[in-house]
Amino acid sequence: MATAEFGSHNWGMVVDVDKCIGCNACVIACQAENNIPLNSQDRVERARTISWIRVERYWEGDFPDAKARFIPIMCQHCENAPCEPVCPVYATYHNSEGMNVQVYNRCVGTRYCANGCPYIVRFFNYWEPVWPESLRNHLNPDVTVRSRGIMEKCSFCVHRIRRESRSARSAGTEIADGAVQTACSSACPTSALNFGNFNDPDSKVSKMKEDKRHYTLLDQFGTDPNVIYLAKIDADKKVGSGAAASHD
Amino acid sequence: MQQRRELDQVYTNRKLLNGQLDTPKWWLPTVSILGVVVLIGVFVIATMINKGLGVTGLARPVYWGLFITTFVFWVGISHAGIMISAILRLTQAEWRRPVTRAAELLTVFSLLTALVFPLIHAGRPWRIAYWIMPYDVARGIYPNIRSPLIMDPVAISTYLTGSTLFLYIALIPDLGNLRDRTTGWQNAMYTVLALGWRGNPRQWKMQTVGGILLSALMLPIFVSVHSIVSWDFAVASAVEGWHSTIFAPYFVIGAVHSGVSAVVTMMALMRWLWKWDDFIRPEHFDALARLLIVVATGWLAFTFLELTFALYGQDAPEIALREMQMFQWPWNMLFIIFFLTGYAIPVPMWLFKRVRTNIALMFWTSILVNVGMWLERFLIIVPGLARRTPFVYTWEAYRPSPVEWTIFIWSFAWVTFLMLLFSRFFPLVPLFEQKESQVFTDDVMIGRAKVPAIVREAE
């Protein structure tokens, strides 16, 4: 099994909501890794921030028994993605590695995909991205800087996957389980975010997703995401009533 | 239809060609003012393309706003032409004659305006050519035909081509007429455009057959164009308020409602501006208002059906969206205005013949309908996107920016500007249609009896 071959993987993520402490390290790591412009005050106020991964916070229960719940949300890389069929120029499509990819060069910025996405994880570049002079040399050379007028979203750190598969191919080996880590999963202090290959039954994520706490976000839409969540364990509650199920 | 006075052909010619042969005094100032508004609009559009869509009020999660609403609005208006000139032509409704050209013209110009919006609302308009033409073969990628945004340009450009041909074929006899009445460069222009029209029987036959064939060919477009526009929304399976299966017929009938109302508005303006009281008469308004009552009521049924389907499914997010659309500020205010102007005020008024034959009242009620129909599209598009999803991160509102409002106003100025420019060179009421209907309603002597020349006109 030459797993370094393109198309032999099914990349995915398992998010253990029980471990998430809402520290936002993943958000910052993603921001730095993927050349995302700084979310200035103005952008926040105008709801134009770009944040490929975000940590949603919910309050459960009434004061004084309120509990803070966190759930990291990024592109779910749906197998049956609502964003893909609506793009007129195939700027977003499903590749053979289970990822929903965004081709910046093709994108004309109709924003149709963003309307279709129920997770609202697609972002539009309203302006040409700018960085403070001190940060200009900090840009990641492996990641395209997106120009104005196009959509962007979580890429599962595709450049890291490509780097690993290239070196594995040239060494004639397979990509070891855990060798590819996304920026968010490598930054997560509690290992709430786990990245790996669902095609390999022995991989860590394949085993994790068999956990009976597993669920997918907004499964009523039948999008079949490649991001699997493991529900919050609450001593007072039954298993399966995690953050996403009781957000209101 | 029999009660009007006889109009002789010289009078008809002089009256209907007054836009071309002796331009009214108000024409130049009006066109100049509109021209300035159009220029301002073009400047704003250019600035927006230059600076980026940041100048709009769009923000997550409302990625489509005023531009797409106005696009749907103008495509809706364009249904006037096909309704009046194709369907009424094929059903031989005689009263359509004076308004056919104005309706077709409205179709062509509103489609031209509608097409601008999807282009300028895109993030990279300079790359949009990739949409409509296949991608360059070297890259081996063709447009995604599953996307309604590919079907849209196909449908609309088909409609635009058909309407333009239709308009032109109906214009040829009048161009011949104008050629014979002008001198100098105008004569040269009309000579070229009239394609050697002499009015011999063979040419008339070809012209008539061409018109009927185009009417029949354009009937499928009547169903397809707005259906496809509605799929822009209906295929978004995860957006409550959008993913409705009845959108296609619902949008089509809504388009007829707004389009025919726009024709009424235009007829009133033509009657006032060019003083065509003899040609655009109260019975035309009467007939259109009767048609509108039926269309509007059918459309209202679809509006209720849409709500019924939403509630029948008992899907909590869908019901929450309807609750927001109808009962939450500011959508509730818009919803009330939409319902009042789109149906509740004009349609009961049209039930009275005194209203239907009152030009001023018809003018204002038809404007109300289009206010309502614009709001209808806005209330479908924006609340659908601004709905409160389970993710609080996306709970944001949308407020159109001054740039968007300017471009919105530009679209109206642009359509009016094109119409007035057209009226300077071509007659807005088809002369030959007018004369033909005159002949049809003439009496002929058979022996000693006086009978109507055309049986279908007998009442």
UniProtKB/TrEMBL annotation, chain A:
Iron among keywords: yes
Alphabetical keyword list: 4Fe-4S, Iron, Iron-sulfur, Metal-binding
Gene Ontology molecular function terms on file: 4 iron, 4 sulfur cluster binding; metal ion binding
All copies of domain 4Fe-4S ferredoxin-type, residue ranges: 11-41
Gene3D superfamilies: 3.30.70.20
CDD domains according to UniProt: PsrB
Name by which UniProt lists this protein: 4Fe-4S dicluster domain-containing protein
The species this protein was found in: Candidatus Lucifugimonas marina
From TrEMBL, chain B:
Domain of life: Bacteria
GO cellular component: plasma membrane
Primary location recorded for the protein, binned into one broad class: membrane
Membrane-crossing segments per the record: 26-49, 61-90, 102-121, 154-172, 208-229, 249-270, 291-313, 333-352, 359-385, 405-426
Pfam families, alphabetized: NrfD
Subcellular location: Cell membrane
Membrane topology type: Multi-pass membrane protein
Keywords: Cell membrane, Membrane, Transmembrane, Transmembrane helix
Family stated for the protein in its record: Belongs to the NrfD family.
PANTHER family: POLYSULPHIDE REDUCTASE NRFD, PTHR43044
Entry protein name: Molybdopterin oxidoreductase
Originating organism: Candidatus Lucifugimonas marina
